[in-house]
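User: Assemble these into one structure.

Assistant: Restating your components, then the assembled model:
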Amino acid sequence: MTHFKIIFSGPVGAGKTTAIAAVSDIPPVTTDTEPTDETRNLKATTTIAMDYGVLHLDGDERVHLYGTPGQDRFSFMRPILAEGAIGVILLITNTRPAPLADLNEFLDAFHTVIQDTSLAVGVTGMDIHRHPSLDHYRQTLLHAHVTAPVFEVDARRRPDIALLVQALLLNIDPGLDDTRPPPTTEPPPAHTTARDYW
Amino acid sequence: MDGHGADRTRRWTPNRDTTGPPPGGRPLPPRPTETTLARPPAPRPSPPATASTHDETPFEVPRYDPARFLQGLVATGWRQAEERGQSVHLQGPWPTIAVYPSSFAAVVDGGQDSLRAYAGQQDLPRHAGLVFTRAPLYHVNHPDMVPLDILLWKLALGASRGRLPLDTSLDTPWTLGEWPNFTRLIVTPGAMSIAALWTRQACTLRQTIHLLNLPPADVFAFYAAAAAIDLIHPELPPPPAPTTRPAASPTPPPLPAINPTPRRGLLRKVFDKLRTT
């Protein structure tokens, strides 16, 4: 039985718990509690240890989805949860005061894991605040010498989170999606119908 | 539209030569490959040429000219409006398109999908009227407002239909400056794989088809869309080192390789699960 894990991290209110719920095969196991600090102004509950979800694969294989607590005082949990991860999904929200500083903070926190594995960044709250733009996030990543997909996401939408995780995986291995039969040596057909991609 | 400030005498003209991106602004759209909009119709395209991948598997290379489709019209209208510091209304037999360069957005009368039936019609821009104005036709929060990159991506896919833009070489190494914002764009088959490859290393179209084992049409469609929003750049060869020796004959770039991760089997299962459920 093989188990792997993907880490969902980011600041308070970025949508980590919601994102895990969007793709998990089970209702996420959360360690939410009523916040006692400034977080109570942002949300009714907050994660204090971790969130947990799972993707069941063929046989007994599964991928664990761990969400780290967003609050700084639980930051000690981040490296513990990240050990042995396939990669890191960072969710950053434009609704916080300094999203690019948040991104830098979490790039630092997961520096080793990101170097060894892969990163994908999802930006939430862009329907509320368009700035910083995705270009600003990309520039911040570039400055940190990190190449990663950056997508606008709605953490409630499964297609958004699924695409983000797929991009994380392709960032590890771009040949992952090659399941087509090898090309034939037959000449091309005399007439090929143009395909509709829109 | 009240037409206030509009220059109604200005109609479609061929592209003027323009400069690069404005300081601090979004990059301007790539210039269409030809200024055919004011020309008589081009002769019918000849049958597509054939090419082969590195392993000599032949494939067709159908071509299209972006300037002869709505894709080129919107790109050129955007560029001209940007230069004027105005917005532009692109009028013709299609639903009116209002382009707002300053907000990098457009509004399509009836919604962007109403252009789908027109995106693949060649020479449609010959019937275009461009009205430049400083008076916005639509409110900034109009429900049909769409980012320009999303619109151009769709129009390019609708025009390309798996064809390669004219004058695009199969053997130029391309890189992708950034991942497209795939959650808000049409994700064509193989697009994410190509993005992952091209953000990691320069790769020619021919090599991409071979390495990713993709149908050429899928690679061409992605190229057309990404080029339309200026995400793709050629990797220029380094300048030759000064030497007194006779110049060596140029050698072709080595074929890039994708080293599969030892976890490919597992990662593929995760990838497929996320695709199918």
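The helical segments of chain A are 16-23, 77-82, 99-109, 111-116, 134-143, 158-172.
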